[in-house]
Each structure stands twice: as structure tokens, then as C-alpha cells.
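Protein modeling request. Please complete all fields; requests missing the sequence field cannot be processed.
Requester role: graduate student
Desired output: 3D structure, C-alpha cell encoding
Chains: 1
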Amino acid sequence: VAAPSSWASQRVVHGSYAAGWMLLVSAGYLVRSFASTGQSLLLACERFSLVARLQIGVNVLRTILVGGAVLAGFGVEGAVAGTAIALAIDGLVSFLLAARASQRTLGGTMLSVRTRTLAEDRRGLIRFLLWSNYASRVGLFAKQCDTFILGWSSGPATVGIYSFARALISAAGRLVGGLHSVVFQTFPRYFPPRDPGAVLPRVRLPAV
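Delivered output (208 residues):
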């Protein structure tokens, strides 16, 4: 992020001030990297309601921080700072809750696991990590390509209006994402491992 921040601030955002904002938000995303692992561990511990409350709470907190900063007169700088703070809190809280849940359910935290026990699966884990990151980057580019082109050609004001409209349209999809996160985790409990035909009757309703 640091390497292209100066170029992006000049060519995309059309203002050198945006380089610092990019670094601030990227720092928030760095801390938020704990959120995915933490919430996956919470789901493995069957703390579904806790994950739901955590996701709702983080979004509410982000709205309060960003909206409060803007209403207080801090403008774009306040919105960026509020977003970065909310991202960091998401990662830290997810990590702490996951550590507590895994200690109670599994008898230890993720930090207490010895990597030697994963030696046999190391190659598969590395391969999965590389391919999942590759797929994530390609998907991110596909999702943000239109915003990037619009910002490069029309400026930040147009991008803001476009992003707001797209956020309103995609709001319904967030409900489906939460349902998917919970339902998907319960599938292995009900399906015999060698009976694919048993899957269809149970997934028909969630799919609809």
C-alpha cells in the first residue's frame, strides 16, 4: 500500500493528502486480519449468536464513529480515521473473544498450538494459502475495478456518490452472507461423509 500510495493519491484521488489516509486505513486492515481467523474459530466453537452480535456491533460502531466524526466537522479525515479505528477494534475484539471461546471449548488458544503438529499438512496449507490469497486479490480487483476507473476519470466526488449507491444496492446481500456463514458451518454435522444424495434435501430451503 505504501509503495503506490503517492501515485494513487495523485492519479486516482487527485490530491496528495490521500496518501496518509491510505496508510491509516491499511493499518486498520492489518489489525483486522485477526477478525477472519477469530470468527472462524468462534464458528468452530458453535458460538453463532456471538458472531452475529459481533458483526452487527462492529457495523454499528463504524457507523457511529464515521457519522459522528463527519457531524463534528472533521470531514473526510474524520471518516477515514473512524473507519480505521472500527477495523482495528473488529480485529482485536474478534481475537480476544476467539481466544476465550477456544480456551473454554478446546482447552487452549490458537497461540498454544505447536506448529510441529501441522508438519505433515504444511505443503497443503501453504498451497491453500497461496491460492486463496490469489483468488481474493483477483476478486478484489474485479469488485473495485469500476471504482478505480471512475476515480481516475471523474474524481473523488463521483466515486463517493457511486460507492454510496452501490452500498445501498448490496445491503441485502449482507443478510445472505450472514446466513451463509451460519448454515455452512452446520452442514458437516448432519451429512454422512459418503452420501452426497443426503445433501440436497437439506440445502434446498437455505438455498431458496
